[in-house]
Amino acid sequence: SGGEGRKEVKSTSFTFEQIGGQNRAKQELIEALDFLVKRDQIEKLGIRPLKGILLAGPPGTGKTLLAKAAAQYTDSVYMAASGSEFVEMYVGVGAGRIRDLFKEARAKAKKAGKSSAVIFIDEIEVIGGKRDGGQHREYDQTLNQLLTEMDGIHGNESPRILIIAATNRKEMLDSALVRPGRFDRHIGVDLPDKKGRLQILRIHASNKPIDESVDLTGIAEQTFSFSGAQLESVMNEAAIYALRDNADSITSGHLHMAIDKVMLGEKSDKETSL
Ligand code: ATP
Predict the structure, then answer these.
(1) How many angstroms is it from 202 CA to the middle of ligand 1?
(2) Residue 136 CB: number of other CB atoms within 10 A?
(3) Mean pLDDT across 249-259
(4) What's the pLDDT tens digit per position in 194-213?
(5) Does the predicted TM-score (pTM) go above 0.80?
(6) In this predicted model, which residue has the larger pLDDT, 117 or 14?
(7) Hey, which family's this protein in (predicted)?
(8) Could you tell me the pLDDT band of residue 140, with boundaries at 50, 70 and 90?
(9) Ligand 1 atom closest to Cα of 62?
(10) Are 142 and 95 in contact (CB under 8 A)?
């Protein structure tokens, strides 16, 4: 998920096929992205250029993955940032960072010979939360800078910038951010259903020796309300249990222990990944 900030600029070729479930979100996103891909046609028809897409939904459901796949689909360079990176004690620093982010994205696209750049901003609510009468003035400047940058995006400029933002708390966003011409495409990214969970489990099982006796459909049934990130954890923890057992493959027993562990609290997961 977020947090890694702008270090994560490697041109990962990550595709929609590597994202399990989320069929509706993928379809809606691809439809929106086709605006960027077919930009000559869009311009001829006088359609307002697409500037911002908002991905809204619970943590760990694949919003970051969708943004990466969007960059790949549109043959764009990818830059990632998190709303919390722009929160600084000193007025103006956050705004400066926003300016730099856009500058950097344009430079990176030019250098790579690409005609577009996708800027992913995770936790957008941190900078784009509802403004409350001057209480958080330094945030205001940051948000204003983002709005200015968005207003400055033109359909015919090169490189073309598309901003994809993610939030778990859409209701908190300032209305200035979600009005037409800004983040006006909203795509819900929900917890996966059973079929989605099975697909996600399969994706994360693909590089692991799973015992023949394992019924992944059953595991998908038993992981109701798990997010993609939690399912990834289940697979990883199961592999760690297998290692502890000195087993060459992951059994249902390992998977069940992993489910319990992830259910009990995934806080310690990251630290136990050996
Ligand atoms: P956050 O809101 O916490 O930033 P997010 O919605 O951006 O979360 P991701 O960072 O995309 O979630 O997902 C975290 C990890 O969980 C991914 O790197 C991947 O391993 C796994 N994952 C999540 N959703 C899926 C999915 N739909 N298919 C496959 N893997 C997934």
Answers:
(1) 14
(2) 15
(3) 98
(4) 999 999 999 999 999 999 99
(5) yes
(6) 117
(7) In the C-terminal section; belongs to the peptidase M41 family. Belongs to the AAA ATPase family.
(8) confident
(9) 11
(10) yes
Quickly tell me which residue has 């992951």 as its tokens: 250
Q: Candidates 65, 199, 204, 216: which one to mutate for ligand 1, based on the most atoms within 8 Å of Cβ?
A: 65
What are the respective helix, strand and coil percentages of the chain, to the nearest 5? 50, 15, 35
Cis before residue 159, ω within 30 degrees of 0? yes
Q: How far is CA 265 from the centre of its chain?
A: 22
Burial class, 266, CB count within 10 angstroms (exposed 0-12 / middle 13-18 / buried 19+): middle
Q: Please, which residues bridge with residue 56 across strands? A: 167, 188
Greater pLDDT, 270 or 35: 35
Chain segment 86-119, per-residue pLDDT in tens: 887 677 888 999 999 999 999 999 999 999 999 9
Q: Which amino acid is at 128?
A: G
Phi, psi of 121 (to 5 degrees): -120, 105
Cα separation, 264 vs 141, in Å, equals 41
Q: How far apart are CA 167 and CA 189, in angstroms?
A: 10
Average pLDDT over residues 54-59: 97
CB distance 240 to ligand 1 below 6 Å: no
Question: What pLDDT is stored for residue 90 in this prediction?
Answer: 76
> 96: Cβ–Cβ under 8 A, 6 or more apart, which residues?
145
Residues in the chain, total: 274
Structure tokens at 164: 């994809």
- On whether the CB atoms of residues 20 and 196 are closer than 8 A, the answer is yes
Q: How far is the CA of 1 from the centre of ligand 1 (A)?
A: 6
- ipTM score above 0.85: yes
Instruction: Measure the CA dihedral 147/151/154/158, to 10°.
Output: -40
Residue to mutate, 1, 16, 22, ligand 1, most ligand atoms under 8 Å from C-beta: 1
